[in-house]
């Protein structure tokens, strides 16, 4: 196999002859085949077979299906917590205790823990302006209608969350409740002031 | 030159006397390449130095974050990509194309016709790189790794490459020696490779961007095919020509080299998608599969190198072109092994997003490709230009500076990356892991300093050789024009004065 | 190979294969992607970034922030935690039962078994799905990054090196615009030992007028400006801060399921 004369037709005066074959080639081919087999097994186990939904640690669509969380009351409250942290918590605090000069506490607030859901939902939907007393403290700030941009489900979830956290004990608010309030609202409401809020039904 | 002729590893230039004579001593076939190669290599040397200086500035910013921080042009996020692109597009590709042209002309025994076109193309390429680097520093980078040049630069570079590749292909098609040498496979494939990947990447990422994470996928495909495959094709093709020459032995062996070529292009092109990336699992899995398969061509190339070098001439360790090429091949093997390691999911969990990645890239770009190009250029340019290197001792010094520099740069950086990765994996606070890596980073910056010095020496030699050639050319022109001037009769008025005087 | 044409053919086949696999394939599969539904919610994900944040992405790109920061969270596994919701009629027995069981870091199978045991004892339990991995443990995200997270980004800035922390969820970790801006102005003051360069050229150091500007940065106590001076962000700095605050990737999705 190393008979150079066999390959004299590849002799190039610029470079001279190139040696012909090599017994190592058979070994290389064997190594290639073994690696290809191992690689195919690896692909079968980890690729999810070209599914566009199977990522990283999941091996197949079946496994992905198994790990889908089931919905439930806890899921809704957790969704509300997520909305709270991204929308409300910046001003009202991650623990609902509020920040002086920025926003009153929601924990123990009489405006949050109400029997009905109407008034507590109108606050994020319409916004607030002017002086208001919350849990014995006087506040004179304005709140933008932070809930106007939220979906019905999200607003219901976050209201449920604040009514049931930090010691608050309130009834949950459902998506239908928010839908009905929005339907009755008509156009964009003006921000409410303290007296309007007090006279509103719960 | 037959293979049995001893090739001088000592920069003497075996076929060229040391005295500085007119360029007619260059073999006419090689001489046709003179101006294109000087244009390509001259610009490449410039970008090499610029790139390493930019890299040094970027590295210093890690030791002193406030260093030049108020200058938006030199902020780290612009200087680091600019340094990488200057090395890859400014030095590696034009140097590679120049060596490809020389190898085609040499192996095919056909002089380069119409050499003006490659000269124009070379200058266009360097102009495009200039626009691209200026754009990055000005804040106009495209935001894609290894593709930061905006349209203005990349279109110019694309057409410049097409011209050069066309001229090389025409020379290859018309060659007198019809037999294909193993280097031909690698180099022909490389000529074809770049336009496809470059145009695809620019069309899908910059011109009509695809949506979302597909940009990253195509970006990874492009980067792998350029930084790994294209450089490997040109570098290994070059090494397969020079190794047998210097070892004084035929390449061992034809079929192994062919196998290495096939396996490299078949599997190497599928590497690139990092493990754990936010893409569907089949993509990183395919890349991991391909990376393990790349062990085969790496092994084959290692065997070819070992068998060719083993029985041949011993290298005297003088720091000549043979030393550059052999170091480059060893660096190729090491950097490919690092690449394969990084593609294994368990290892990638530790090395990903650490300094291990940049270490591997620099070993590939500089340790393998740039060093191979240095060796090739030091060998071929005197024969093309017709003059010996003006500073052969500095060229030998450059070998030591570049070799020690790149080793000192890559090894601590890689270790630092592994240290950083392991600490992060164990749950250490992020800053603590970074601090642990910083010590290794400091050591690697000293390596970078040596690399900068080596690059300066290389540029010095190239520019000095160009100056010598230009001076000789000017002298030649004057020598030709002078007798012609003397035969022109003096103007009538002067002749009249002379007659009156007489 | 004897012929240049065959070399060209070989290169064409090899590169064509990977082009089909890694360019045509993903464009076909993911290129037309749209928003997906968030698990257990009526919302879709992702939301378009607000205007300032989209401009901020261009500032992020122009300054090469992706050279040091990544925007991809990795996940190495998924685990289940079983949580007792209700003791039922026999709370003491149920409490005794769960004190003998492992409730955290279970596989789905084991979690189902535990859940069945609790139900058999009369209690009510819920299985929470959590992602696991060093990035998750470090608090860089609640789940791994998926294609939907980058749907509206042009260009996608995944990053490749973590010289600085991952930023996929920086809008959740540090939602305060003032913190982001002060960190950009003087990183080593806000984060001790940081190697991030100060981006002072994105700000304006100017003399305070009759009243401090509402945009002026509030620095920590240790950092004092010269008397009578304030630092005001330029529009670019504000856009960049808006972009950073918009970086949130925690929504549970079908491809990356977690219990919120």
Task: Describe the overall structure.
The complex is a heterotrimer of chains A (202), B (502) and C (260). With 202 residues, chain A is mainly alpha-helical. Chain A contains seven helices and two strands. Chain A starts with 23 loop residues before the first helix and ends with a helix. Chain A has two domains: 4-66, no CATH class; 73-199, Cytochrome c-like domain (Cytochrome Bc1 Complex, Chain D, domain 2, Orthogonal Bundle). Chain A has helices at 24-46, 61-66, 73-92, 118-126, 152-163, 175-185, 194-199; strands at residues 128-134, 137-143. In chain A, helix 3 (73-92) crosses helix 5 (152-163), helix 4 packs across helix 6 and helix 5 (152-163) crosses helix 6 (175-185). In chain A, a hairpin with a 2-residue loop joins strand 1 (128-134) and strand 2. With 502 residues, chain B is mostly helical. Helix content of chain B is 75%, strand content 0%. In chain B, helix 7 runs antiparallel to helix 8. Chain B is globular, with a radius of gyration of 25 Å. Residues 1-6 and 12-25 of chain B have low confidence and may be disordered. Chain C is flat and about 70 Å long. Chain C folds into two domains: 36-74 and 137-245, Cytochrome Bc1 Complex, Chain D, domain 2; 77-132, no CATH class. Chain C has nine helices and six strands. In chain C, the strands form three sheets. Chain C has a two-stranded antiparallel sheet. Chain C has a two-stranded antiparallel ribbon with strand order 3-4. Chains in contact: A-B, A-C, B-C. The interface between B and C is large, with 82 and 75 residues.
